[in-house]
Design a protein that fits this description.
Blueprint: H1 3-20, E1 25-28, H2 29-35, E2 44-49, H3 53-63, E3 67-68, H4 71-80, E4 83-88, E5 94-99, H5 104-111, E6 114-116, E7 126-128, H6 131-144, H7 150-163, H8 169-179, H9 182-195
Parallel strand pairs: 2-5
Antiparallel strand pairs: 1-2, 3-4, 4-5, 6-7
Helix pairs in contact: 3-4, 6-7, 6-8, 7-9, 8-9
Length: about 200
């Protein structure tokens, strides 16, 4: 079984259940940055979802035979707008579910998703964070992690370089201001420009 097929095998049931529950969601993190061209191996998938206690409980109940998941942790994540994980028992792939914080940025990210196949072999169309939202979210994570993760920084540099003029820079600046990472965005643009 390949790494990519394991990823899809772990992700598809979660996506199917979120669709069934009519919960807005999208794939973010390194899987989204890989989709936008910054490919690298990962053993987890980040999902952002607009869950409440009722839908989180239904999600966990539906998936608990195929995933290791703790209902109390999921409910607490909903209350705190934080995250919980589902570990796919067959593949050991981890799906990290981030409960949407409901900020204006989060609402715009849902309206800007890209609906596409994550991989050429994928049979399912998935909601994926836009390149701009992937960049800004990773900059926020980079800051929250003490600005020490080279993997996060390299991901955003590569997506920025690959997307180039396709990026909506006005939107990037607005979102970066909202999330308090304008200085990181300026640094990112400078490093990508210097490298070109």
């Amino acid at each position: 079984m390949s790494h990519q097929s394991d990823l899809l095998k772990a992700l598809h049931p979660v996506l199917a259940e979120l669709h069934r529950l009519n919960v807005r969601h999208y794939v973010g993190g390194s899987v989204a940055s890989s989709f936008h061209g910054a490919s690298r191996s990962t053993v987890d998938v980040d999902l952002v979802a607009e869950l409440n206690v009722e839908t989180a409980t239904a999600l966990v109940t539906a998936l608990q035979t195929s995933y290791y998941v703790n209902l109390n942790t999921a409910v607490e994540a909903v209350r705190r707008h934080s995250c919980f994980n589902l570990i796919h028992l067959e593949t050991a792939f981890k799906v990290d579910v981030f409960v949407s914080q409901g900020r204006p940025f989060d609402q715009r990210a849902f309206s800007r998703i890209v609906a596409d196949r994550l991989l050429a072999t994928d049979s399912l169309v998935t909601n994926i964070a836009s390149a701009e939202d992937t960049i800004v979210t990773k900059l926020e994570w980079y800051r929250l992690g003490g600005e020490t993760s080279e993997r996060q920084w390299n991901d955003v540099k590569l997506v920025t370089r690959l997307k180039g003029d396709q990026l909506d820079r006005d939107y990037l600046r607005q979102a970066a201001e909202e999330l308090g990472v304008v200085d990181l965005l300026v640094r990112l643009f400078a490093e990508v420009h210097d490298a070109s």
